[in-house]
Structure to design on (701 residues):
């Protein structure tokens, strides 16, 4: 054992090299368009191996990066945006509509994810359409009565709310292509910086904070849900904590001014994220942690009368912006809250499984193999060891309760209590009255909230254990790891995914808990540095290959159908379009500035629906966040609910006149022209697209 300890550095390097080799093999063989990994993998092995002889020098470089992280981050951001780098799945459009110029290559690594429809098929079209809408608050490009574009995925809107949306400044300053790159690069880089500060406040360990920040930002939960509100809420909640901490702890004049301004921006960003099921719990968690951190460091906390003025400035500044937003968006928020879906959902818990308390073993397969239990986004989670460190925590608390580290335990106590409450809610549930009083009624995404809390607790616990290493007994760590592994096995042996099981066999569901439980045990021993290459490999495989690496945004416009549509739009910019038998064409048209009435609406376009359903007897079908597939018919208009957020609208051709539709994009095999002509609507075929097998038809009433 002493010999192994003596050569632990070499063993660390060997494990790292082995991890990189395994990652390289899996990515190259199971991820489409991944040849680049054959250059990256060997380079990383070389750098990692050099640690044997140049560990001090490499550590010096790391210290330099940490010290000048903000300057380096800015340089990296400028370089990435200059080459128009992004991670969007817009390449899916190339698969559907072909390429007008086949020589244009946008995806340099990985492929677009069809499951990421909320990103490439909703958010990107909404953002791009704002260029043609002059970044106004309300848009009629997908609606007759208008859609509030801040409610619509926080689209670029010129106004005071820009203070809380630095990720979309690029759209307004430089246009759509650079805007898309600015959005992706800024969100990743800013969260890495915020994540580092978050964990450094909690742990005071700069190297662990670097690792933890990467683990947070590249978690499957945040990478699969990168575009919607989820990523945004976790970012702004973390930012509020960091900014709030330095707002109270900063003593220098420039710090007071800076964090007063940042507090206003952070509050605005958090509030206008508009996703209560995550905002409420993450806000409460971060507020609790902030209070605990201020108590822990109360000796450094100095409050002056002038600080009351700073608080007032924050309240006034954020209040003016948010007040204006709420007044402008009052009607839209009212419509959104009264939708059938998502509407006002009340969660009382009790409907989760034991397995939900652990990192899903299939996370390292998720980027490479589709599964059947739910879609890849829905099963995504954070990587953590929450249950393991909860089992160990009473012992850790006991050995520190009468030491100089006792005050540090206030953070651990806070996170432990929060986790206990979350687990009770998930497995047992609350009565409805209690859920409403505690605001848990909003929390229908508790697996994500719990995973986030468990991740924070995991890294805080690691540092606390290492700080107490002279008192920690590895035997208690072994017992905790064994119980954790057994519970992990029990949870997932009753929660198997058939499609993964066919590809891996049962051994996989035994192997992963044993590996993760075994690697976590190393944290309690003098071999703790061996934990990082093992868990680091897991983080890389589970989160870093979710989204492709893309250059530019040509996949939005490099299609013959779109070239023709743009030509028509430039001649007739105010005309309304409609697409039939498609859930993608309308969104691609919208991204290119075409007014298309069946693009996604975040809340009902009542003016449009009242024209064809004046009695509103079918309101339950369209009173929702809505994807709309149109099928033209000579029969009376009817509605079919296909999913909670989509319908099939069998639209009587006479209703086209009510909507004043001038251009139709349709599959010629649907015999649309014959149907229209039969019902007295003259048509003129303007274009037939070979790639998508669609045609553009002008309607003449």
């Amino acid at each position: 054992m002493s010999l192994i300890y003596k050569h632990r550095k070499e063993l660390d390097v060997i494990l790292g090299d082995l991890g990189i080799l395994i990652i390289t093999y899996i990515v190259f063989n199971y991820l489409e368009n991944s040849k680049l990994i054959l250059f990256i993998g060997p380079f990383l092995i070389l750098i990692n191996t050099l640690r044997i002889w140049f560990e001090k020098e490499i550590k010096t470089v790391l210290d330099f990066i940490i010290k000048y992280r903000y300057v380096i981050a800015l340089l990296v951001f400028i370089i990435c945006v200059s080459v128009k780098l992004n991670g969007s799945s817009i390449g899916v459009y190339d698969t559907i509509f072909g390429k007008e110029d086949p020589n244009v290559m946008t995806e340099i690594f990985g492929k677009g994810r069809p499951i990421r429809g909320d990103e490439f098929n909703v958010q990107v079209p909404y953002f791009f359409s704002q260029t043609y809408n002059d970044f106004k608050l309300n848009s009629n490009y997908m609606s007759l009565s208008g859609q509030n574009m801040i409610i619509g995925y926080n689209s670029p809107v010129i106004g005071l709310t820009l203070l809380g949306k630095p990720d979309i400044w690029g759209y307004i300053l430089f246009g759509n292509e650079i805007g898309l790159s600015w959005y992706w690069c800024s969100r990743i880089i800013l969260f890495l910086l915020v994540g580092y500060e978050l964990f450094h406040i909690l742990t005071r360990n700069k190297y662990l904070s670097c690792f933890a920040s990467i683990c947070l930002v590249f978690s499957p939960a945040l990478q699969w849900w990168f575009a919607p509100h989820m990523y945004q809420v976790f970012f702004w909640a973390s930012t509020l904590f960091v900014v709030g901490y330095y707002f109270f702890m900063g003593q220098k004049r420039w710090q007071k001014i800076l964090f007063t301004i940042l507090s206003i921006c952070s509050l605005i960003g958090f509030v206008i994220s508009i996703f209560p099921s995550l905002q409420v719990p993450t806000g409460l968690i971060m507020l609790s942690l902030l209070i605990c951190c201020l108590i822990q460091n109360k000796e450094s906390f100095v409050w002056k009368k002038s600080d009351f003025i700073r608080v007032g400035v924050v309240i006034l500044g954020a209040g003016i912006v948010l007040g204006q937003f709420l007044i402008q968006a009052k009607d839209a928020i009212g419509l959104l809250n009264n939708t059938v879906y998502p509407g006002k959902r009340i969660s009382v818990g009790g409907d989760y499984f034991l397995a939900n308390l652990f990192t899903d073993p299939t996370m390292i397969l998720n980027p490479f193999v589709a599964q059947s239990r739910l879609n890849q986004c829905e099963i995504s989670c954070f990587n953590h060891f929450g249950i393991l460190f909860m089992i160990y925590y009473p012992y850790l608390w006991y050995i520190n309760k009468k030491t100089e580290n006792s005050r540090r335990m206030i953070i651990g106590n806070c996170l432990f209590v929060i986790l206990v409450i979350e687990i009770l809610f998930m497995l047992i549930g609350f009565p409805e009255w209690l859920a409403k009083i505690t605001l848990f009624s909003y929390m229908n995404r508790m697996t994500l909230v719990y995973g986030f809390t468990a991740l924070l607790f995991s890294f805080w616990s690691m540092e606390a254990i290492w700080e107490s290493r002279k008192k920690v007994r590895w035997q208690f760590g072994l017992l905790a790891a064994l119980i954790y592994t057994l519970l992990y096995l029990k949870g997932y042996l009753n929660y198997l995914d058939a499609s993964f099981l066919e590809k891996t066999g049962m051994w996989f569901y035994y192997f992963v808990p044993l590996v993760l439980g075994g690697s976590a045990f190393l944290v309690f021993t003098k071999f703790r540095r061996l934990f990082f290459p093992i868990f680091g490999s897991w983080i890389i495989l589970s989160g870093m290959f979710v989204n492709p690496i893309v250059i530019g945004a040509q996949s939005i416009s490099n299609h013959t159908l779109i070239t023709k549509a743009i030509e028509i739009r430039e001649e007739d910019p105010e005309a309304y379009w409609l697409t039939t038998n498609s859930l993608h064409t309308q969104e691609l048209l919208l991204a290119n500035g075409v007014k298309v009435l069946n693009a996604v609406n975040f809340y009902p376009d009542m003016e449009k629906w009242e024209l064809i359903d004046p009695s509103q007897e079918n309101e339950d079908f369209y009173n929702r966040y809505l994807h709309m597939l149109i099928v033209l018919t000579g029969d009376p208009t009817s509605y079919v609910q296909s999913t909670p957020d989509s319908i099939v609208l069998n639209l009587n051709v006479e209703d086209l006149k009510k909507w004043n539709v001038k251009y139709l994009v349709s599959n010629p095999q649907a015999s649309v022209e014959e149907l229209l002509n039969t019902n007295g609507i003259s048509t003129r075929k303007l274009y037939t697209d070979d790639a998508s097998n669609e045609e553009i038809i002008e309607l003449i009433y």
In short: Residues 176-203 form the longest helix (28 residues). Residues 200 and 206 are 6 Å apart (CA to CA). The mean pLDDT is 93. The two ends are 87 Å apart (CA to CA).
